[in-house]
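EI: anyone free to look at a 98-residue chain?
SC: sure, send it
EI:
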Amino acid sequence: MEFNSGFKGLTAFWASIWGNAVKHNLNASWIRREQTRVSNVPAMEHSPITTEQVSRLIAKTLNWNTPGPDRINNFWIKRITATNSYLAYHFNQFMEYA
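SC: here you go
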């Protein structure tokens, strides 16, 4: 693969690695040892994420970093504060049902 092969090249490269099904030995002895070792570890409790926490974290982001899949720069996300309560809600939903 060429270094500058673009999106299609990158997609093909990673598909060749992650796109192949692999059969794992689910009865491996180390798996049973680890299951036994962590069986008494209590489940982690979820503390609800607040709108204020979302707002504080968004405020700390750098304005012109490369945007994510939504292609929205942090500069704009910081200014569209009406979405912060929805983000907090959806983060909590994810934590509850993930």
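EI: The helical segments are 6-18, 29-38, 51-60, 74-79, 84-97.
SC: 👍
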